[in-house]
């Protein structure tokens, strides 16, 4: 009886793995066949000039954005750097210009603001032959929280920074890309949109939006020679992730972006890095095999994280009040 049960369980697991593998195959095949119809697949002949004379990178002075700007500059592409801090923008502009001899423009702007910032950006980008747009800027909230615990302003800022920015930047640059019949857009999402992500739900949902809009807008403009990629990375060692030391599953920005750029023009939707692809397949496997059990586990883990973070926050504010009153 025991042996029979084990046998049935093994059969069930094999059935589930096969199902995951087949659905992965179908999905990847669909992406590859779609992308192969693009005339400007940069890996066809390794011609990075196809990325255009100018690239725009949002959230460009740290982490993944800074590395995109650096690696594109190393290909001889002129860069427009956009983020908040003037000093950081100036320093990076000088570094890229002196190292690679390219032109660099900077725009200091806060993407948590509303639509009022975009006329300024339009003006700054006017007249440039922009072939590549990296919509990288994004924010999350430090501590996992119930949705109702987030204050209204945080919600609006997060939506503006993660969703409005990418939407408006695409709206700004797509018309000139269509006129030139070429263009690459990378929308930096997150694997958080691929798995259930309770207590960081608003962040994960904004990333799901980016994934959806990348796909559908990509279909609208594909026939105009424009390639839109949804990048869905897992952890990368940056300030935002609070991971200081790169590891197998959390690579440093240099190796991550090198691999992600190589997938531009090839994959319309990708984690961008091989160990993240393993994670993606593993998460899908867990979801398909263990469905609600996996979700319950996620809720437990994230809720524990939420409670630890909350306790730490309360302790810190208690200490700062006490220290202040001494
Ligand atoms: N790191 C990860 O593990 C990970 C995983 C999945 C997805 N992602 C996504 O990757 C993207 C980049 O993340 P990262 O880890 O590289 O972040 P990061 O290291 O914290 O860098 C963020 C960059 O964006 C700029 N920035 C932040 N807020 C801004 C705002 N409101 N307006 C304009 N610029 C702003 C920052 O410069 P200033 O502060 O000077 O403005 C900085 O240059 C995000 O969209 C994130 O969601 C990251």
Topology:
Layout: H1 2-36, E1 54-58, H2 63-74, E2 78-83, H3 86-100, E3 104-108, H4 118-125, E4 130-135, H5 152-180, E5 183-188, H6 201-222, E6 226-231, H7 253-262, E7 269-270, H8 274-325
Parallel strand pairs: 1-2, 1-4, 2-3, 4-5, 5-6, 6-7
Helix pairs in contact: 1-8, 2-3, 2-7, 5-6
The protein binds NADP nicotinamide-adenine-dinucleotide phosphate (NAP).
Give a nutshell description of this structure.
By secondary structure, the chain is of the alpha/beta class. It is built from eight helices and seven strands; from the N terminus they run H-E-H-E-H-E-H-E-H-E-H-E-H-E-H.
Characteristic key phrases:
7-stranded parallel sheet, Rossmann fold, 7 strands, 11% strand, alpha/beta, 56% helix
Helices and strands, in N-to-C order? Answer: HEHEHEHEHEHEHEH
Count the E strands: 7
Report the C-alpha radius of gyration, rounded. 22 Å
CATH architecture: 3-Layer(aba) Sandwich
Could you describe the largest sheet, including whether it forms a barrel? Answer: 7 strands, parallel
What structural class should be given to the helix and strand makeup? alpha/beta
- Output the CATH homologous superfamily: NAD(P)-binding Rossmann-like Domain
Number of domains in the coordinates?
Answer: 1
CATH topology label: Rossmann fold
The helix content, as a percent range, equals: 55-70%
CATH class: Alpha Beta
Described by the principal axes of the CA atoms, the overall outline is globular
Low-confidence stretches: 28-41, 43-47
Report the total helices: 8
Q: Ligands in the structure?
A: NADP nicotinamide-adenine-dinucleotide phosphate
């Amino acid at each position: 009886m025991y042996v029979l049960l084990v046998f049935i369980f093994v059969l069930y697991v094999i059935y589930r793995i096969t199902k995951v593998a087949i659905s992965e195959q179908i999905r990847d095949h669909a992406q590859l066949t779609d992308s192969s119809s693009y005339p400007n697949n940069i890996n066809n002949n390794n011609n990075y000039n196809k990325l255009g004379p100018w690239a725009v990178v949002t959230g460009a002075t740290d982490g993944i954005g800074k590395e995109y700007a650096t690696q594109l500059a190393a290909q001889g592409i002129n860069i427009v750097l956009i983020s908040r801090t003037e000093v950081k923008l100036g320093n990076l502009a000088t570094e890229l210009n002196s190292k690679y001899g390219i032109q660099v423009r900077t725009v200091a702007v806060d993407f948590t603001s509303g639509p009022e910032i975009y006329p300024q950006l339009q003006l700054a980008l006017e007249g440039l032959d922009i072939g590549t747009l990296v919509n990288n800027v994004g924010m999350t909230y430090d501590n996992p929280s119930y949705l109702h615990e987030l204050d209204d302003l945080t919600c609006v800022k997060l939506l503006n920074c993660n969703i409005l920015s990418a939407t408006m930047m695409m709206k700004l640059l797509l018309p000139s890309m269509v006129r030139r019949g070429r263009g690459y857009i990378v929308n930096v999402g997150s694997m958080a949109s691929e798995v259930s992500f309770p207590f960081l739900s608003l962040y994960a949902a904004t990333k799901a939006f980016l994934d959806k809009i990348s796909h559908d807008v990509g279909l609208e403009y594909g026939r105009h020679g424009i390639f839109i990629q949804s990048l869905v990375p897992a952890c990368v060692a940056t300030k935002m992730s609070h991971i200081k030391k790169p590891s197998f599953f959390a690579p440093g920005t240099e190796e991550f972006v090198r691999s992600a750029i190589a997938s531009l023009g090839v994959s319309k939707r990708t984690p961008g890095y091989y160990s993240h692809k393993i994670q993606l397949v593993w998460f899908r496997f867990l979801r398909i095999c263990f469905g609600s059990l996996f979700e319950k586990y996620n809720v437990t883990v994230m809720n524990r994280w939420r409670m630890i973070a909350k306790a730490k926050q309360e302790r810190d504010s208690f200490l700062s009040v006490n220290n202040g009153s001494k």
